[in-house]
């Protein structure tokens, strides 16, 4: 239990920041799940149209420090690679 004024303020600030991070982490997870659903369904057209929004959301979350920037870049790169490979594979079928 914080006793000093500064400790009380710091506790409130920490609780607020934790709730903000929780909301942002939820947006991150929902974006990942949405893209995974498009890729699992084989819907490359929807996945490609969602890609700019996906990229934007991940980078906004990475900028605030909820996830690492390299993690966001890795996820974006892998998703982009899967979208491009799915289009190539369908061209041969």
Question: Which descriptors would you attach to this protein?
Answer:
mainly alpha; 93 residues; elongated; Methane Monooxygenase Hydroxylase, Chain G, domain 1
Secondary-structure element order, as H and E? Answer: HHH
Q: How far apart are the termini?
A: 65 Å
Strand content: under 5%
CATH topology: Methane Monooxygenase Hydroxylase, Chain G, domain 1
User: What value does the average pLDDT take?
Assistant: 90
Structural class computed from helices and strand pairing: mainly alpha
> What is the gyration radius calculated from CA atoms?
19 Å
The CATH architecture: Up-down Bundle
Task: Itemize the secondary structure elements and their pairings.
Elements: H1 5-41, H2 44-63, H3 69-92
Please summarize what this structure is.
With 93 residues, the protein is an all-alpha fold. The protein contains 3 helices and no strands. The N and C termini lie far apart (65 Å).
Task: Describe what this molecule looks like in 3D.
The model has no long low-confidence stretch (mean pLDDT 90). This protein has one domain (5-92): Methane Monooxygenase Hydroxylase, Chain G, domain 1 (Up-down Bundle). Helix content is 87%, strand content 0%. It has three helices and no strands. The radius of gyration is 19 Å and the shape is elongated. The protein is mostly helical.
